[in-house]
Amino acid sequence: xxxxxxxxxxxxxxxxxxxATLLWDNSLTVLLRIMAWALVGVVVHxxxxxxxxxxxxxxxxxIIPSGWRSPVSVAALCSVVMVVLxxxxxxxxxxxxxxxxxxxxxxxxxxxIALAVVWACxxxxxxxxxxxxxxxxxxxxxxxxxxxxRQPPPV
Length: 155
Hints:
The chain is mostly helical. 75% of the residues lie in helices and 0% in strands.
C-alpha cells in the first residue's frame, strides 16, 4: 500500500512540476490574471456553489424518496457538469462568416438533448434496480425497531 502512495505522490509532484514549467514562460501580468481567476474560482466554489449544493441536498432529502436519491444525485451532477462545460460554446462566441473555427452546430439543442438523455436514465435505473433480487442489507435497512421478534417465554 505504501508503494502505491509513493507512486501517487510522485505522479502529483511530476504533474505539478509540468504545470509550473508551462507557467514559467508567462509574464507577471498573465501570472497575476491566472492567480486572480484561480482565487475567484475557489471563492465562487466555496461561498456560492457548495452552499447551493448543500441546500439542494437537504431539500432533496425531504422531497425525493430514498430509492430515487442516488440516480437523481448522479443525474444532477452530470447536468451541472454538462452545463458548465457548455458555457463557452452555448452562445457561440466568435461566430462570424470569416471565422471557420467555430463549428456550425446548434449547441443549445445539443445540450438539451444530452440533458434529456441523462434524466431519462433516472427512471430507467430505478426500474432496473427494482427488478434485481432483494439483498439482505436492503431488507435490514427497510426494517425498524418494531420488527424485532418476541423473545421465547422463560423456562
